[in-house]
Amino acid sequence: MIRQLLLFSKNMTNMLFKGCEVLSDKLMAEIWEVNPMPKLSHLTLDNCHTITGQSLQHVLDADNELAVLRVWSCLNITKLLHIELVHRIKNENLDVYFEWYEYNE
């Protein structure tokens, strides 16, 4: 269902996923191949444990309007990855507010 919704939402600006176990790097790659979401400005992932840094790197690479990236309590987004993303955003002078909260069991 998520795939069908996102494939055809070309003007999507805000996405919030909470506890979404079906959301994976593979699924997001398939969606972005068809719908690169050029107007995406806010992405929030809350307790999405199957997403990894691969999807976060992709959304930073993409030609979009990303201004806010929030990653809260996602198992595969570690403190080390958080630090890498903070450095990337700073070094590339990206105009992105990045907020991260560590996963706690």
TrEMBL record:
This is Uncharacterized protein.
